[in-house]
Amino acid sequence: MTAVSSVAVVGSGFAGAAAAILLAEGGVQVDLFDAKPDVGALGSGITIQGNAVRTLDRLGVWEEVQQHSYAFDELGLRAPDPAGTVLAVIPDAKTGGPDYPATIGAYRPDVARILVARAEAVGARVRWDAKVEHLEQDDTGVDLAWSDGQGLHRDRYDLVIGADGLHSTVRALLGIEVQPKRNGMGIWRAFVPRPQDVTRTDLVYGGPCYIAGYCPTSEDRIYAYLVEDAQDRTLLSPEEQVATMRRLAEAYHGPWDEIRESLDEHAAVNYTWFTSHLIDGPWNRGRVVLIGDAAHSCPPTIAQGAAMGLEDALVLAELLLAGDAVDEGLWQRFTDRRLPRAKAVVEASMQLADWQLQHDRDGDVPGLMRRVAELVSTPA
Ligand SMILES: Cc1cc2nc3c(=O)[nH]c(=O)nc-3n(C[C@H](O)[C@H](O)[C@H](O)COP(=O)(O)OP(=O)(O)OC[C@H]3O[C@@H](n4cnc5c(N)ncnc54)[C@H](O)[C@@H]3O)c2cc1C
After folding, report:
1. Mean pLDDT, the chain, whole residue set
2. Which of 65, 71, 100, 258 has CB 3.0 to 4.6 Å from 53, enough for a Cys bridge?
3. Spacing, Cα 283 to ligand 1 middle (Å)
4. Side-chain half-sphere CA neighbours of 277 within 13 A
């Protein structure tokens, strides 16, 4: 007996794909909707912490992700000086436990492809180009209206999971007014060849940017990033974007000298603002529930966003598969297990960003990082 026999999952990112895998594996009929034309329409690299790796293993994809990622167990700190001097090398917390690396870097589209393929392999039906437009619920189910090139369609499900990201349509359809707020920082990211001496993430605090960092994603590639005061960069042409990132990178050395030379039209340079938000209460309204960035987001200062989305899916699927009804008890258990943990991660990520924005050198960064690592080391 499970609490549901049919579920629509809206959004095929980390959170939605994970929910689809676990529910389909548990015998639930799952339709996974995504407004994108296909799985490849994502970009850039991602840093995935051990607790997320542990969840990827639970999803049955860790072996394959391992082949498409770069693992490391330490973090370097460098100075914004002409030599890119290494100031410290710190062992990274193994938040997934001793069996997994502390951190992996990966190319996002690779992980997305692996997750969606797994969802299909365990029986979820994936619908691309399928935009969820409207929903209406009663005591026994949810009527979902979605559109594709052919027109508007309607289907009924026992439950709808809104895993449709930062600007969630499902959140809006539920009338939840919480919205991501900009925190004042913007990030340049580029995907470039790996300098041979880049074998872990190194961060540089200071110089013209708050943070200059990189993360290896394979033997061949890394993604590099520069965090600055948020600015309207929308009017820059692709060439101007590359030139701007190169100019900002001039202050950084060591591997950055090689990275800077690689910043050209092939580097997939892009610019995004940091945001944060949290639905500080239940993430469901009746039989519709939000997970992942639809429910919470934070600046990636501790790289836990994807991990939190994966864990939301894990806990939700566990409760739905173990339960026999979609009732208040189930939602209370979900809220109790997810809200405090996600809230702690959002607040810690915001605190780290605020210390940087205020140039506050007295903030207890190691203490805060240690507390978050301890929290997320405990399985969700
Ligand atoms: C600059 C930046 C860097 C980051 N770096 C890291 C990092 O290094 N490590 C980390 O853990 N986290 C990082 N994060 C956070 C992380 O990217 C997110 O937390 C995570 O990707 C969210 O996954 P999700 O599945 O909730 O949503 P998403 O990945 O956003 O997926 C939502 C999906 O829903 C689909 N969708 C939207 N609307 C509809 C609709 N109406 N109908 C159907 N489909 C719809 C979209 O097409 C999309 O595919 C970063 C975030 C930012 C902004």
Report:
1. 96
2. 100
3. 17
4. 20
